[in-house]
Design brief:
The chain has 179 residues and is an alpha/beta fold. The chain contains four helices and 15 strands. A hairpin with a 4-residue loop joins strand 14 and strand 15. Helix 1 packs antiparallel against helix 3 and helix 3 packs antiparallel against helix 4. The radius of gyration is 17 Å and the shape is globular.
Length: 179
Amino acid sequence: MFKYIIADIKAYNEEYKSIGTLKRCVYLFFRYELWGILIYRFGRWASYECDIPIIKYMFRTVYFFLRKISDILFDIGIWPESEIGPGLNVHNSGIYIKAKIGKNCVISQQVIIGHIGGFKGGGVPTLGDNVYVGAGAKILGEITVGNNVKIGANAVVIKDIPDNAIAVGVPAKIIKTDE
């Protein structure tokens, strides 16, 4: 858990590398998006990695309230069932994630990544490493998005996307691949 947290903080730290250390620490402390990710990491650990039953119960109770704070105040909902690699960078709010996501991914505001519900393809999406998801995009169903993919703003992804591609539109179409 801690190596993932450090990688997440480093992902945000890159944005502030040109300013002083103290100012950078203050900026990072007040990034609510980072707090949303840290709450997810804590919930994931409390739900799936903690082995001591009484501690697990206590921490899951604490996580329940922290998640509600994240949902209401930050508008960031990341399910603890999600498997997210290190270096996640979320921009702004309106983020809801229930998926498998690789390392060093960037997710913009108002993005939904998850299952379709009771309809066909009700599984969760799988995103590879170094994926950029543009503002307002929706990635729905049991699909796979490859490594080094860029998904444009407001795209609705309902089909698999190969590695090194750029996808835009509703429904998303691949406009470029770099093989």
